[in-house]
Amino acid sequence: MRTGAGLPPPGPAPAGGGPAPGTGRGSPASRETAAAPGGTAAPAARRGSRTGETGVTVTANRRATRAARPTRPARPTAGRDAPPAQRLLRAAEELFGESSYRRTTVAGICARAGIATGSFYAHFGSKAEIFAAVVRQINADLRMAMREAIERAGDGQRHRERAAFRAFFDMLSQRPWIDRIVRESEFVDPGLFREYYEHLARGYARGVRRAQLDREVDARYDPEVVAYIYTGIGNFIGMRWADWPAGGHVPEDVLDDVLEVLRRGLPPSAADAAAPAPGVSL
What is the pLDDT of residues 91-110, one digit of tens each? Predict the structure, then answer.
């Protein structure tokens, strides 16, 4: 697969489309000063600066990067002066993420929100209804974060790609439970789960198409295919470095690798192609 497609933003996006660095924190790292054309650091230079000689050092460096950051994720807060519906949504998101849909109760949501249980039904008809509202709010928050990141990104698809991924990863670091809530929705409400990803993918595909028209992405590729490729990569990289460590930070070198792999499409170098293939153990 060869693609220069960036993760296009869900929903309206600036010209060129494609989600970009998260909330302004996707500025190029120092090693990108010597980046290859297109804004991606040269692989050899990155490997040298990251690892020295061994892959063991890579792991150590990444662990050190995570250790330097706060390990306790920030809760989505809604103060006592916030509207009751917003307080209920925030409390429900926390509890669904902590305890699962099945173990969460309406009474527990109300207790966390500081609202009388009887008042719940003035805003939501059932636990299932507030669960759907939480999933849709997560979707809206993610699309807004990427849209804002893209607006601050530099020109070009490379910058939009970095901004979008960084915005997504930072949101997972701050609220690592949201990915678990979305995954659980597949079993609680399969239609809601599909709606979540279709909504994101439609926006991403629009961004890819805009990038194709700007000649930044190969027009041979189906924008929807590229959109789901980016969605899947973002989900699993975020799961590994943000969700599993419970609020960990996806390191810049990991993001560099994601973007470089996508840019290059995994073709071997001329030297590698001429060398004997090593044995692979899975």
Answer: 999 999 999 999 999 999 99
Class at the top of the CATH hierarchy for domain 136-264: mainly alpha
Give 231-237 contacts, CB < 8 A, sequence gap 24+. 231/197, 231/200, 231/201, 231/204, 233/258, 233/262, 234/7, 234/165, 234/168, 234/169, 235/179, 237/165, 237/169
**Closest residue by Cα to residue 207 from 197, 198, 217:** 217
Instruction: Quote the CA–CA distance of 140 and 154 in Å, as a whole number.
Output: 23
* The amino acid at 235: N
Rg of the chain, C-alpha, whole Å: 21
Could you tell me the CA-to-CA distances from 55 to 49, 59, 154 in Å, in that order? 12, 7, 32
For 163, counting Cβ atoms within 10 Å of its Cβ (0-12 exposed, 13-18 middle, 19+ buried), the class is: buried
CA distance 155 to 174: 27
pTM: 0.70
The neighbouring-strand residues paired with 40 are 36
> Residue ranges of the domains in the chain?
136-264
Q: How many alpha carbons fall within 13 Å on the CB side of residue 278?
A: 4
